Amino acid sequence: MTERSDLSGQFIKVYSPEPHVVVVQLARNPVNAFHEPFWVEYGHVFDKIGQDPTVRVVVLASTLPKVFSAGIDFTALGALQTFDKDPARRALQTRTFTIAFQEAIGATERCPYPVIAAVHGVALGLSIDIIAACDVRYAADDTRFSIKEVDVGLAADIGTLARLPKLAGNQSLVHELAYTARDFSASEAERMGLVSRVVSGGRDGVLKIALETAHIIAQKSPIAVLGTKRTLQHARDHTVQENLEYVATWNSAMLQSSDLTAALKAAKAKQLAIFEPLGKSIAKL
């Protein structure tokens, strides 16, 4: 295990358990409640990871044994009280504040590499915004989720209501959970489509499974995985025909990669393919 001090910050700890895999850990005691410095750092860390050509897959977890995140630290919203007294100016400042917050939490989505969320314990409010922006979501069977925002007098505005309806197969349940703010279990999250796997063993158990998946992904062609993430995101937001045209254009360039030749040679030889690192500068998705 290699510490990645170049990527870590005050509230985010990053390490590499094997080549091409990094684990990003939320690490703000006592409950990983997000205040502005925390979410700004979160966004910066993922943006830095997105520019690191040695990375191929990311696992998002928590250092705390019983908590993924309790959501937002509401003392952080005290900054809103310093905004202009004029309603129009105050509205503009609030909008700017919210968009910056959305951009930080959405950093996993624009990261060019797959991000696997390993969730356990308490996962409230902002936790749903965070994991909904990840590519793969696993939960320990002890996880307690809640879309908590209506209980504090607001509509969730950092990504849950934008992304969760596109992830879940049960729209009625999405509405119920968003309106009631009731707790729901990992098994219910799996049934609705928020998570794809529920495992035993708490934090360590879900992290182990996430790392196993990350290991598999890290051995694949980085060009192919990056292109797959980009195309899946495009498909979510466009028609089938638009996505077919998009991927045809994308692959008109990417099919020229040496990865294709390496993969075919390895398959013929019944060996594991070895792929070259990505270039020094990785474009944001």
UniProtKB/TrEMBL annotation:
Gene3D superfamilies attached to this UniProt entry: 2-enoyl-CoA Hydratase, Chain A, domain 1 (3.90.226.10), Lyase 2-enoyl-coa Hydratase, Chain A, domain 2 (1.10.12.10)
Keywords: Fatty acid metabolism, Isomerase, Lipid metabolism
A GO BP entry: fatty acid beta-oxidation
InterPro entries: ClpP/crotonase-like_dom_sf, Ech1-like, Enoyl-CoA_hydra/iso, Enoyl-CoA_hydra_C
Family matches, as Pfam families: ECH_1 (PF00378)
CC terms in the record's Gene Ontology section: mitochondrion
A GO term for molecular function: delta(3,5)-delta(2,4)-dienoyl-CoA isomerase activity
Pathway(s) it belongs to: Lipid metabolism; fatty acid beta-oxidation
Family statement: Belongs to the enoyl-CoA hydratase/isomerase family.
PANTHER family: DELTA(3,5)-DELTA(2,4)-DIENOYL-COA ISOMERASE, MITOCHONDRIAL (PTHR43149:SF1), ENOYL-COA HYDRATASE (PTHR43149)
Protein name (Swiss-Prot/TrEMBL): ClpP/crotonase
